[in-house]
Design brief:
Elements: H1 2-11, E1 18-29, H2 42-63, E2 69-75, H3 78-86, E3 95-99, E4 109-115, E5 121-127, E6 142-147, E7 150-156, H4 165-185, E8 190-196, H5 204-208, E9 229-231, E10 234-236, E11 239-245, E12 248-253, E13 260-262, E14 269-271, E15 275-276, E16 279-280, E17 290-295
Parallel strand pairs: 1-2, 7-8
Antiparallel strand pairs: 1-17, 2-4, 3-4, 5-6, 6-7, 8-11, 9-10, 12-17, 13-14, 15-16
């Protein structure tokens, strides 16, 4: 029955004026062959591949269509993406990969999967970040994928760790803004920027006030879930989107039971992560996926 549902969703043509987009920090989705710690074994890696695949198909079941684009953060390299779409039920679909190696110190990148039957890729590029002295920042690039009728930017901004973390994230936000400005200036009609911003997306206008300012930094709808990640018992909404142009976006957080576990310290539930320190927990990520229904 599940296979029949999958095939029916696969064969169902996407509406020409709408897309289903998923954005998800998949927490250290790393190539086990390059791991020197012994934590990321082959078995654990393929368990994670299957869990990511099943989650995307659960999203398809809930929303009635296969995701047209899937933005992923914390990806180790292109090989892990190739294995994801070739060794799981996703192999039955027509996903293609956009990925570039970034200068990140941890060796993690942003990536985008897209269905060739839904989106026609025109060009793509990695957009480096530079500090105030002009030096290349050892962090994730912003990934830009230009499709026919829509541009998608995938972000994973610098973490909150370190005394200089705030200015580093401000640089990333300013770069994202500049990219969107330049794309609009040359007539690109629709821009969607997604990812893990490592800041509460509702407070980003305050962070940028005095530089780029708060213009266009308001998601088009409130989310159904309090947050996407839980820290010391408090939900934070650090994953989300920004949009410009002739489009509307309805957002929800996919806080599925299959991705959750009891929060024994603070009550309620929390995302079930893959590792807690060195201990394998068997989950997928400490972030919930964000699901966007984009229409115009």
């Amino acid at each position: 029955m599940k296979l029949l549902l999958l095939l029916s969703l696969w064969l169902m043509p996407a509406a020409p004026d709408s897309l289903l987009v998923v954005s998800w920090n998949v927490e250290n989705f790393l190539d086990y062959r390059a791991d020197t710690t012994g934590r990321h074994t082959s078995r654990r890696f393929y368990t994670k591949c299957n869990a990511i695949s099943k989650t995307l198909l659960r999203i398809a079941g809930r929303y009635g269509r296969i995701p047209d684009a899937v933005a992923l953060m914390e990806v180790g390299n292109r090989k892990v993406l190739e294995r994801l779409i070739s060794t799981t039920p996703l192999r039955k679909l027509d996903y293609e990969i956009v990925h570039y190696e970034s200068p990140d110190r941890r060796g993690i990148d942003c990536a985008l999967l897209f269905r060739q039957s839904s989106l026609r890729l025109l060009r793509s590029s990695p957009c480096h970040l530079y500090d105030s002295s002009g030096a290349l920042m050892r962090t994730r690039d912003i990934l830009l994928a230009e499709f026919e009728g829509l541009d998608i930017l995938v972000n994973h901004h610098p973490s909150k760790v370190g005394s200089n973390s705030g200015p580093r994230r401000a640089i990333a936000m300013a770069m994202m803004t500049a990219l969107m400005d330049s794309l609009q200036a040359v007539g690109h009609p629709r821009l969607l920027s997604v990812g893990d911003f490592n800041d509460d997306v509702w407070h980003i206008p305050v962070i940028l006030s005095g530089s780029e300012g708060p213009r266009c930094f308001a998601p088009l709808s409130m989310t159904e879930q309090t947050g996407t990640i839980k820290y010391n018992g408090a939900w934070e909404k650090i994953d989300g989107f920004f949009a410009r142009g002739n489009l509307s976006v309805r957002e929800s957080v996919f806080a599925d039971a299959s991705l959750s576990e009891p929060d024994r310290a603070f009550g309620g539930v929390k995302p079930r992560r893959a590792f807690s320190g060195p201990r394998w927990k068997g989950g997928v990520s400490d972030h919930y996926p964000v699901v966007l229904l984009v229409s115009w």
